[in-house]
Amino acid sequence: MRTPPKRRAPEKSRLSVPKLKSYDWPIVTAPPEDDSEVCRLKRKDRTPDSRERRPRRPAPDEGSRNGADRGERIPPPPARCTGSLHRVAAGDTIFRLAMAYGLTIEAILAANPQIDDPGTLHVGQIVCIPDRAEGMVEILNALLTAEKIETAMYARGLQSPALEGLPPEQFAYYETGLSHELAHINVLTELGASVPYEEFFYPPGTFEDLTTFVNTLLTLETAGVSAYIQASAEFAKMGRLDLSRLMDQIMGVEAEHRALLREVLDLIPAANLCFERAPNLPVTQILSALPSFVQPDQFDGESEGPVPLPTPEQAEELIGSNGCPNPRPDL
Question: Domains of the chain by range and CATH?
Answer without folding.
Answer: 37-46+55-130 (3.10.350.10), 134-319 (1.20.1260.10)
